[in-house]
Amino acid sequence: MQEVLRNWINEVQYKELIEGVNNCPHKLLGMHQIEGGKGIIVYRPQAWSVEVIHEESGFREELQRIDDNGVFGRYFDKLEFDTYTLAVRYGEDDVVYTNDPYNFEPVIGEMDRYLFGEGNHYEIYKKLGAHPMIIDGVSGTYFAVWAPNARAVSVVGNFNMWDSRLHPMRILGVSGIYELFIPGVGEDAVYKYFIRTRDGKELFKSDPYGNYAEVRPDNASKVTDLENYNWRDKQWEERKAKLKRRDRMDSPITIYEVHPGSWKKHQDGTEDGFYTYRELAEELGDYLLEMKYTHVELMGIAEHPFDGSWGYQVVGYYAPTSRYGTPQDFMYFVDYMHQRGIGVILDWVPAHFPKDAHGLGRFDGEPLYEHPDKRRGEHPHWGTYIFNYGKKEVENFLIGNAIFWIKEFHIDGLRVDAVASMLYLDYGKSDGEWLPNEKGGNENTEAIQFMQHLNRVIEERHPSALIIAEESTAWAGVTAPVGMDGLGFLFKWNMGWMNDFLEYMKLDPYFRKFNQNMLTFSFAYAGSENFIEVLSHDEVVHGKGSMINKMPGTIEEKFANLRAAYGLMYAHPGKKLLFMGQEIAQSREWSEKRELDWFELQNEKNRKLQAYVKKLNEVYQMYPAFYSNDYHENGFEWVDGSDCENSVISFIRKGKNTQDQILVVCSFTPIIREKYLVGVPALTSYKEIINSDAIEFGGCGKINRNPIKSKKIPCQGKPFSIELTLPPLSVMMFKFSTRKKKKRDQKK
């Protein structure tokens, strides 16, 4: 009867199996109908024997060795079962029991493959990758990977001795997707994909869609189940789901930017001293609540090999880094933040990826995720690859990834890194290093279409999400809707303001009067995009110095300058972002290798600056004038921006009604100015709500305890005015109303 089996075996497929290049092993291995009976073929090199077991019927038969290559098989005239267990013996006391992996149908269907090929399978991450599941009553893990240029792919791991011969995968049609269900493989199993290329190379790759990875420097993927976390943020998610684009634009947003590995460290002598996600959630969550921030933005969460990249060179786009714990631990972090009323924003890097051998680069032996032309596919000065945005499957990989974080991890927003490098084909490149587009220009039309596609889909599926562009040029329409030919981002980092403002603040106050435009120019274009005013990590690294040490003057003047800087930042139109450590005036430049210099809070000046930032967050959220009209021309009005000689500016922030208005007066010289007249629009009282010179914030105490009544003295183009004493290097804010009192109010 074995002759029937031998005659059935396709010699080409058999030879390819032995040579490790068979991409359709299911056609040979497993159980098959043969001439009215059934044949079972198993490939187990180094096995002594293989036995087929069906416990329910008591069936137990040993397969025969077909040859010395490790192929076992047997033809049966009649079998009453379709599922069975294999007992593979490798020695006297070494027996492995498993269901036959080549006896299961694909999980990925034809529609999945079609949508993926069209770039529209927005939850493709549920099909590709490694997913623990039960099929036909059998527990195991389903593996699927896209590798269209590979000659053959197999799964290797600690469950099969990393032997590429044991679990070859099958390709599904012309999709380029390889898949295999491996019974018995469960959570925490360590694996990679073994890829044999067309030119005979052998590659070991981590899973592009993997959800968990080994702790660096190890880099294999690990099986995990993302479905078993019990979320407790239902109220937060329900409230968030009701928000639309306008709601988000009109809401108060103050963001604390954090590098998780260096905010705080354990001082216990361990190599890294990292807080776990769960430890960080509780300490950071309490701190954010105390400091009155609305959001935390996390650097470097997606898996990355090199600590010094801060997470901006990603290899595991679908995996929160294992440096701080498991994916479920990260879910706990987000969940905890939401229960404290704090939103979570992630840095997201679709602009480039590193060339590490286990990553996306040359994934199946050829350019797959990166553009094949070096002039389009590499950043020569960064040493990284550029995604091929014009390839639909790559576009799907990235858009699916954005949705993955928002949906599966309840992330509230993504700050998209290095958008300028995506928009311009010649970004960071010299002549000869880039290739013009089809019209001869330097715009990357494929990347533009990708970003529009991304933002359109997010707006449709997750309209509450904050999608933020870190875009450093004057590209028009970054936050304009896609329907108006914009890129469709909700917010944009205001890099121009950051650069001009910091250059102004670094000037000796004597020279500021010659550079007033550096202070005022940003107000002219504040409504051109939906800006976030940022003082980010970029400004306190690479020799740029800390924020406090950018300020000129004596130590007292440095602190006064910094208070004035933060005060103007919070009064300026736009949402707010401050990098960790800046709120305590850390004097050293930030480094990912150590925790923040919390010991500086032993200094009274640092403690008082921290209290000042807390008060700014509180005042900002208390008065809608600071945020509800950020992107409307009615939200801002100049009083005077032209007093260059005194380096003083004054303006009004306006809310939705006449009762909600704030007068802001800023003085950027270390001189007390007595009886300084400021024009105001209404004959009413002006109540000071915050003064950076208050003693509680480290100032001299020249504040206005009582409301100031305006007088009918025209000034600076306004019909009325108030007389102020301007403290040195200060920002003052006054609440007032232009509502006219009704007669019955006057009688009262």
Topology, element by element:
Blueprint (H helix, E strand, L loop, with lengths): L1 H7 L2 H9 L10 E5 L2 E7 L5 E6 L4 E4 L1 E2 L5 E6 L8 E7 L2 E6 L10 H9 L10 E7 L2 E9 L5 E6 L12 E2 L5 E7 L6 E7 L5 E4 L15 E2 L11 H8 L3 H5 L4 E5 L1 H4 L13 H15 L3 E4 L3 E2 L12 E5 L6 H13 L3 E6 L25 H4 E2 L4 E2 L6 H17 L4 E4 L2 H5 L21 H17 L4 E4 L21 E3 L1 H12 L2 H4 L3 H9 L6 E5 L19 H17 L3 E5 L24 H19 L13 E8 L4 E7 L6 E7 L5 E8 L4 E7 L16 E2 L10 E7 L3 E7 L6 H5 L1
Parallel strand pairs: 17-18, 17-28, 18-21, 21-24, 24-25, 25-26, 26-27, 27-28
Antiparallel strand pairs: 1-2, 2-6, 3-4, 3-7, 5-6, 7-8, 9-10, 10-13, 11-14, 12-13, 14-15, 14-16, 19-20, 22-23, 29-30, 30-31, 31-36, 32-35, 33-34, 33-36
Helix pairs in contact: 7-8, 10-12, 13-15, 16-17
Question: How would you describe the overall organization of this protein?
Answer:
With 748 residues, this protein is an alpha+beta fold. Among the domains are: 2-100, Immunoglobulin-like; 110-228, Immunoglobulins (Immunoglobulin-like, Sandwich); 632-747, Golgi alpha-mannosidase II (Immunoglobulin-like, Sandwich). It is 24% helix and 25% strand. It has 18 helices and 36 strands. The strands form nine sheets. The chain has an eight-stranded parallel beta barrel with strand order 17-18-21-24-25-26-27-28. A six-stranded antiparallel β-sheet has the order 29-30-31-36-33-34. It has a four-stranded antiparallel β-sheet with strand order 1-2-6-5, with helices on one face. Helix 16 runs parallel beside helix 17 (604-622). The longest helix is centred in the last third of the chain and has 19 residues, at 604-622. The radius of gyration is 32 Å and the shape is elongated. The model has no long low-confidence stretch (mean pLDDT 94).
